[in-house]
Amino acid sequence: MASSLLAGERFVRALGPGGELEREQLPRKLRAELEAALKKKHTGVNSPNGPRRLVSFRLIRDLHQHLRDRDSTLYLHELLEGSEIYLPEVVKPPRNPELVARLEKIKIQLANEEYKRITRNVTCQDPRHSGTLSDLGKQVFFPGVLSKVRSVKALVVTIFNFIVTVVAAFVCTYLGSQYVFTEMASRVLAALIVASVVGLAELYVMVRAVEGELGEL
Fold first, then answer.
1. Alpha carbons 168 and 146: distance in angstroms, whole number
2. Closest by alpha carbon to 10, among 113, 103, 67, 84?
3. What is the DSSP string of 12-27?
4. Rounded distance between C-alpha atoms, residue 26 and residue 15, angstroms
5. pLDDT tens-digit map of 12-44
6. Which helix (H) or strand (E) is 135 found in, with range?
7. Which residue spans traverse the membrane (predicted)?
8. What is the pTM of this model?
9. Contact between residue 155 and residue 210 where contact means Cβ atoms under 8 Å apart
10. 30 touches 109 (CB < 8 A)
11. Per residue in 64-97, pLDDT tens?
């Protein structure tokens, strides 16, 4: 943060013997502080002309206040012609080597995790899954075979459901017909009729489903 001015030649001449500030009757303390600041050269100041003189803002404010109190015709901006605000060079503190090493380690870990996440779907070496090479072979070389196996399984399940449905219809009708028919032959005939109707309906649905499955093979 800036707190000083690089005094220009105009300000130095004004404060010197016979200068413009001599007739302003500066307070002894203020004049002594200004002269001491101008006599002290700062070699740390970057300037093509070598070391320069620094005057703090506090002294400049005191000088400005004195000129205002005296209603002086000498203005501060005229005295500061050629002066510049001094911005000290910011010195960065050295970084902790342990902290730097830890940050670098964290960066490497994050980079490895990001790489694994990106390449997870394109590599066969994911340790969380076993048999990835065989799974890849199935997906690449046997997609048609897997589809046919699934179709055969669906066909077997359909036939099994058909048989169970027909048998269930026959048994239910046979047991329920005892309240209508007293003879065994009549009960069996009624059960066969109902089972046949249910079987035909199920057969129609099954045939349509099988046609769809066979069309995909």
1. 33
2. 84
3. HHHHSTT-TTGGGT--
4. 10
5. 888 888 778 877 778 888 888 888 888 876 555
6. helix 132-141
7. 154-176, 188-207
8. 0.38
9. yes
10. no
11. 888 888 888 888 888 888 888 887 777 778 888 8
